[in-house]
From TrEMBL:
Localisation per UniProt entry: Cell membrane; Early endosome membrane
InterPro entries associated with the record: P-loop_NTPase, Rab4, Rab_GTPases_membrane_traffic, Small_GTP-bd, Small_GTPase
Pfam families, sorted: Ras
Membrane topology: Lipid-anchor
PROSITE patterns, per the entry: RAB, RAS
Main subcellular location: membrane
Name of the molecule in the record: Ras-related protein Rab-4
Catalytic function, reaction form: GTP + H2O = GDP + phosphate + H(+)
GO cellular-component term (any): plasma membrane
Keyword tags: Endosome, GTP-binding, Hydrolase, Lipoprotein, Magnesium, Membrane, Metal-binding, Methylation, Nucleotide-binding, Prenylation, Protein transport, Transport
Similarity comment: family membership: Belongs to the small GTPase superfamily. Rab family.
Cofactor: Mg(2+)
GO BP of this protein: protein transport; Rab protein signal transduction
Native species: Cyanistes caeruleus (Eurasian blue tit)
Gene coding for it: RAB4B
Length: 213
């Protein structure tokens, strides 16, 4: 069966090793916790079609390895990503301290316009918390990131994180701030008729028919 969607967005999941990136992606796609998750070797891939603000969006998601030894491989997947989940572990200050570097990589290697949501994962481990909600939300504000605390174990805020990022991208397309036709935007139209989205009210909608050329 062929899938239909209005847009396709390329997403990345980045952050230090062991923060729960693969478990977040697994929960988003399978709606359950991934038992016995091993370190990702290079990159893994997942995709899901979601409904955002009345539009059908296919998210094409690259789950990258956090381990340093894979850095040169994972960096080659950054190019042209429209959105990213930047993940740290609320029980590990070390993973929080590494955020600035991940952010620099994302903005230089993917795109300066990449829409990033910061995810403080393992929210269920409150007793082992090393990073407060407040300090992470300040970091997010200072760096123009959205922010949520998530749990890939309970599923709390997992879907919200992906949807919030997708919704922001869609809003930016609608306002003209993001141009899906720019090379490397990480966005593709699933249906050419949606180009009318960005057309002024009253302008004729592009024809759905193929010209056959
Ligand atoms: N309690 C709890 N444990 C989690 C959560 N998310 C992941 N874990 C555990 O954290 C460990 C690492 O999870 P992964 O998803 O493999 O981490 P990763 O970020 O993909 O790691 P790399 O692939 O090496 O970059 C696993 O033992 C998971 O069971 C969570 O939300 N809560
Ligand atoms: Mg992984």
């Amino acid at each position: 069966m062929s899938e239909t969607y209005d847009f396709l967005f390329k997403f990345l999941v980045i952050g230090s090793a062991g923060t729960g990136k693969s478990c977040l992606l697994h929960h988003f796609i399978e709606s359950k916790f991934k038992q016995d998750s091993n370190h990702t070797i290079g990159v893994e891939f997942g995709s899901k079609v979601v409904n955002v603000g009345g539009k059908t969006v296919k998210l094409q998601i690259w789950d990258t390895a956090g381990q340093e030894r894979f850095r040169s491989v994972t960096r080659s997947y950054y190019r042209g990503a429209a959105g990213a989940l930047l993940v740290y572990d609320i029980t590990s200050r070390e993973t929080y301290n590494a955020l600035a570097q991940w952010l620099t990589d994302a903005r230089t290697l993917a795109s300066p316009n990449i829409v990033i949501i910061l995810c403080g994962n393992k929210k269920d481990l409150e007793g082992e918390r090393e990073v407060t909600f407040l300090e992470a939300s300040r970091f997010a504000q200072e760096n123009e990131l959205m922010f949520l605390e998530t749990s890939a174990l309970t599923g709390e805020n997992v879907e919200e994180a992906f949807l919030k990022c997708a919704r922001t991208i869609l809003n930016k397309i609608e306002s003209g701030e993001l141009d899906p036709e720019r090379m490397g935007s990480g966005i593709q139209y699933g249906d050419a008729s949606l180009r009318q989205l960005r057309q002024p009210r009253g302008a004729p909608a592009p024809s759905r028919q193929s010209c056959g050329c």
